[in-house]
Each structure stands twice: as structure tokens, then as C-alpha cells.
Please model this.
Amino acid sequence: MINVLVTGGAGFIGSNFVRYALQAHPDWHITNLDKLTYAGRMETLNDVIGHARHTFVHGDIADATVAAPLVKASDLVVHFAAETHVDRSILEAGEFIKTDVIGTFVLLEAARHASHLRAFVQISTDEVYGSVPAGSSVETDELKPRNPYSASKAGADRLAYSYWATYQVPVMITRASNNYGPFQFPEKVIPLFISNAIDNIPVPLYGEGLNVRDWLHVMDHCRGVDAVIERGTPGEVYNVGGSNEVRNVDLTHTLLRLAQRPESLIQRVQDRPGHDMRYSLDTTKLRKLGWAPRVPFDEGLRDTVSWYHENEWWWRPIKENDPSFRAYYQAQYGSRT
Ligand code: NAD
Ligand code: TYD
Model:
């Protein structure tokens, strides 16, 4: 058995990766370390929780007493755990520094002393490049993060690289574009807008809605991470992009059409401060490892809208009963809407 530590496996991408990997790799045993913050939910793991090759550990990556022995026992570490929402980082950045920077440091320190670690995959983001007015980012471009989330991720990204350069920890770094798909927490734009549309309440579009994001289906991201694990080179960075650059206003129109709701639900609200205008990735390097995105955007988006329609059991309790979500929604949108 290959012992794989997945961090943040109760979150959106981590849980999809756990599900994907249990199928794709019958010789992997996955230990899933997650703190179960507001964004990590046991319900998300309902279908894998009793699986013989999956062990869930409730704990904080920044707590070395829990995290270090797990890293040291691993052949592979796939590190997804993070605070991930830009708007929350603008409201309060402390947890982003603790988890994204210090938590990553704790894992890397343990990885230095791991005897049979074959790969440490640092899940980074295209947001570390900052706003890209023209062209597409290549892996060697300068990092120019502009909000506390992307700055924390850039810190973790370079810290991980430093553990390769200094200590030869077999770090590989992926920088993915905006993901979408099942089990995404309903604070991010796609699930927020779909679930608001289902409930016939306004969808709050920031500013003019001209900002561009490159949408990547979460399963294509999982396959990209797998390609890096299988065929990547330690010390290297790989962009993982969907090649679907869409303006927010166009995305919003498409989502409302798919949800069969009127455009009058669009509510233009005060823009996010420091809102990056555009992200764009050049994915040539990962494509050379034999990876390419497979899910066409129109199909993936249609299936995602259907998923949120069919899985209200998952998101409705978060939006309606979770006091922390309601407090966040009020703080973020109360004065905007
Ligand atoms: P998410 O917010 O849905 O999930 C994060 C998970 O990490 C949750 O389960 C949470 O409980 C867990 N977590 C948070 N702090 C922790 C801690 N201190 N210890 C242990 N677990 C902790 O995030 P996501 O969208 O699935 O993103 C996963 C990773 O992918 C992140 O590193 C993120 O930066 C990166 N990423 C995300 C996107 C995207 O579009 N969502 C794009 C590129 C990269
Ligand atoms: P988001 O899903 O928060 O991802 P990120 O900020 O990491 O790219 O936002 C995606 C885009 O949607 C971004 O340009 C901000 C915009 N947006 C809105 O217009 N309204 C919203 O309520 C949210 C959450 C995002």
C-alpha cells in the first residue's frame, strides 16, 4: 500500500480528490487530515467515510503533534488544506496566515524528516500571479499577489519551493485556476449564485462584472494533480487551467439561464477592494505530461447547476441554519445589497 496524506480532504477540492483517488489508485491508502473549519464538513465525505482505504483524522495542520507523525508515515502528501475565500481574507486575514503559511511550514518541517516521502504536492493557485491584464501566466512569471488570501498562498508556494531548494524535500507545486463542481461551499461565486437563484433571491455581482476568471472543472483539477504526482519533477511548478476565460457578467447570465431564472435577479453591488481583473494560465507545461482538461465548460456548468438542484440536503443547512454562514453573509453583503 502507498500511504497518502491528503490535507483538507473534507473541503471542496480535497473531497473530490479523495473520491477520485480511491477509484483511480487501488493501491493507495488515504489519511485525510482536516480541521473541519466552516468550509470542511463530514457530510461531504458520507460516501467514503467507511471505505477500507480511507482514514479520517480531525486535526489542524498547524498542530505539529497531530500533523508531523502523519507526514512522517507518508509516501505522498497532497496538501489542499487552506483558508480559501478572498472576501473572508479581506474581512479578517489572521486565519489565512495561520493555516496557509504556518500550517504549510509545519507540514514541510515534518517532511524534512520523513524517511520515504516520494512527493509533497503543494496545491497553490493562479491567484499568486496577481491580475494579468494581457497574455497568460507561465510558471516562471513573477508572483504579484494583491489580497491577503493570494499573498498567504504565495508565501506557502515559495516556502514549499524553498524546502526543495534547501533540503531536497520532493516538493511539486500546482497552480490551478478557479474550480467549479459538486460540494463547493456556497460562498464562492458559482454555488452562491446557483443556490440564490434556486431560492429566487438576488445574485450580488461585484462592480461591472467585467472581471475574468478561467474556470476549471474540479475533476480536471484532480486529474492534473494526479499527472503531477505520477510524472512531475521535484522542484517544478505546474499551471492547471481550464482554458475557459469568462467574464463574471457572462457567467452570471449563463447560470441564470441554466437555473431558469430571470436576469432581473442580478444585483450590481459594491466591488471587492483590490479586485483582480483577470487570471489566465498557460498550461503548456502540464500538457506535456499528457494532461488536458476534459470537461467542456457548458456541460460542466449544466451538471453543476443540476447537482445543486438535486443536493439541497448538502447546501441548504449551511445557508439557512449555520449561524457562522449567516454572520458572514451579513458582514459581506449587508451593506452592499
Ligand atoms: P475549501 O475552503 O473548500 O476547503 C478547505 C479545507 O481545508 C476544509 O475542509 C477545511 O476544513 C480545511 N482546513 C482549513 N484549515 C485547516 C487547518 N488548519 N488544518 C486542517 N484542515 C484545514 O477549499 P478548496 O476550494 O477545496 O481549496 C483547496 C485548495 O485548493 C486550497 O489550498 C486552495 O488554495 C486551492 N485552490 C483552490 C481553487 C478554487 O477555485 N477553489 C483554485 C486553485 C487552488
Ligand atoms: P470567487 O468565487 O470568490 O473566487 P476568486 O475570488 O477566488 O476568483 O469569485 C469569482 C469571481 O466572482 C470574482 O471575480 C469575484 C466575483 N464575485 C461576485 O461578483 N460576487 C460574489 O458574490 C462573489 C462571491 C464573487
Q: What stands out?
A: Residues 9 and 313 are 20 Å apart (CA to CA). The pocket of thymidine-5'-diphosphate (ligand 2) is lined by residues 86-87, 178, 188-189, 192, 204-206, 211, 213, 248, 272 (CB under 6 Å). The chain has twelve helices and 13 strands.
